[in-house]
Amino acid sequence: MKPPGAAKVAVVGAGPYGLAIAAHLKARRVPCRVFGEPMEGWRSHMPREMYLKSSPFSSSISAPAPGYGLGEFRTREGRHPGREREPVPLSEFVRYGLWFQENCVPELERTAVRRIDRPPDGRFRVTLDSGEEFTVPAVVVAAGVSPFAHIPRELTGLREHGLVSHTADHTDLSVFAGRRVVVVGGGQSALETSALLHEAGAQPTVVARTRPSFGPPPEADWAKDRPLHARLLWPEAVMGTGWPLVVCSRGPEAIRHLPARIRAHLLRTVLGPSGAWWLRERVQGAVPVLSGRSLHSAARQNGGVRLNLRNAGGDVETLYADHVIAGTGYLVDVDRMELLGPGLRRALRKSAAAPPQLAGAPQLSADFQASVPGLYFAGLAAAPTFGPLLRFVCGTGFTARRISTSLERSSAA
Asked: Torsion angle, CA of 246/252/254/258, rounded to 10 degrees?
C-alpha cells in the first residue's frame, strides 16, 4: 500500500469482510487506508462461549494468495485443520481473524471512523475518532451486523429501562444467573443464547412463532468420504451440501437479478431460522420452548416484564420474566448507519417496491457500488442484493474479488 496521503480508498471495518477486501486491494496495489478494531464485532457483540454455525471448511477469510485459511492457522497452532463434525469456537475464530490481520493487513489503523460525508466536489470526507479528517475518492463500508440488530416494536419501549436487549448486546451471559430470561426467536442465535443461559445458571424460556428445528449432522468428517450417490444428489458447496446451497454459493450475481420478493424469500429460508445440529441436545429437554406464539404486547411489572403472547388459536397467554433477549436477527437499513452523514444517507437509493425486510437496503450494482458513485457496501448490507452467501464468512471471497477489481479499474482511470 502507498502512504496514507496517497490513499484512494477508505475501508471502514476490520471484521472478516473489511480485512478480506483490504488484503485483495493490497494485492492489486490499490492504495487504501483501513480502519477499525480487528474482529471487533465478534469480540464485543457475541457470547464468548458460542460456536460458529458454519463448518470449519466454510469459515476461512478470503486472501489473494493461499496459506491464510482457518486450516492453515490451526496447523500453525500445532493442531489438525479441522473436521466437518467439529464446530468452530468463537474464541478460536477471533484468534484466527487477528492472525489474518497481522499477516495480511498489518497496515490496519486501529481507530474508528466517526463520520463519512460527501461534499459537492464528489470526494468523500472521512472523519476519524482521533479528529483527523481526509478526503478520498472511494469508501468501502464493511461495518458488520451490529448496526442492524432488530428488536420487535412490541419490546423497543422497554429497552431504555434495561429490561430488553438483543443477542448482539452480550458477551457474558453469566450475569443472568438465577434470573428468568425469555429469549424471543427460533434461529441459531436465539437457540444458542438459550442454551448458554441455561448452562450459566439462568432460567431461560424460548418463545418462537414456529417449532425450532435443527440441521442434520454431517454425513462424514470429510467431503470425499460421503457416498457417491449422496454427493450427486446433494453436492458440496462452500455454504454446505444441497442444490439450494450450491445455487446460492455459486450464483450471487444471478440472484441480484431476481425479483425482490424472491431474494427476500431466499434470505429468509436458505439456512434460515434453525439451530445447528450440535445444538439440539443442549436445547431439547433442557430449555422450555413455547412455539406457535407471537408477541402481542409487553409492559413493565414489579421490576420485570409481563409478556402477552398470542397463540395459534388466537388466545392471549401471559408470561413473566426478569429480562427479555431478542434473538430476532438483523434488518438492513442504511438509515440506521449513523457513521454515514445525513446528506449521504438521503442520497442513497434503496430497493424499490421491496418487501419490508429489504426496504431499507441499498441498491447495489454488480460490483457492490451504491447509487452514490464510489460508495461500496459489503457483508450483511449486501445480502439483500446478492443473497444468503453474504451473511456468512464464506462470502468474503466473492465480495473482495468484485470490489477490489472495480476499485483497481477506477484507480487506474
From this structure: 100
Q: What is the pLDDT of residues 207-239, one digit of tens each?
A: 999 999 998 888 776 677 777 777 777 788 888
Q: Residue 9 in contact with residue 407, Cβ under 8 Å?
A: yes
pLDDT of res. 1: 40
In terms of phi and psi (left: phi > 0; alpha: psi -120 to 50; beta: otherwise), the region of 13 is: left
| Distance, CA of 100 to CA of 69 (rounded, Å) | 8
The dihedrals phi and psi of 30, each to the nearest 5 degrees, come to -95, 115
d(CA 166, CA 161): 14
Do the beta carbons of residue 297 and residue 126 sit within 8 Å? no
Q: What is the pLDDT of residues 239-248, one digit of tens each?
A: 888 888 999 9
Q: Which one, of 319, 279, 13, lies nearest residue 144 by Cα?
A: 13
Q: Please write the tens of the pLDDT for every residue from 160-192.
A: 999 999 999 999 999 999 999 999 999 999 999
Residues 333, 148 contacting (CB under 8 angstroms): yes
3-state secondary structure the chain: CCCHHHCCEEEECCCHHHHHHHHHHHHCCCCEEEECCCCHHHHHCCCCCCECCCCHHHCCCCCCCCCCCHHHHHHHCCCCCCCCCCCCEHHHHHHHHHHHHHHHCCCCECCCEEEEECCCCCCEEEEECCCCEEEECEEEECCCCHHHECCCHHHHCCHHHCCEEEHHHCCCHHHHCCCEEEEECCCHHHHHHHHHHHHCCCEEEEEECCCCCECCCCCCCCHHHCCHHHHHHCCEECCEECHHHHHHHHCHHHHCCCCHHHHHHHHHHCCCCCECHHHHHHHCCCCCEEECCEEEEEEEECCEEEEEEECCCCCEEEEEECEEEECCCECCEHHHCCCECHHHHHHCCECCCCCCCCCECECCCCCCECCCCCEEECHHHHHHHHCHHHHCHHHHHHHHHHHHHHHHHHHHC
Residues 313-371 pLDDT 10s:
999 999 999 999 999 999 999 999 999 999 999 999 997 667 777 889 999 999 999 99
C-alpha cell at 288: 422450555
Q: How many CB atoms lie within 10 A of CB 175?
A: 11
pLDDT of 112 > 70? The answer is yes
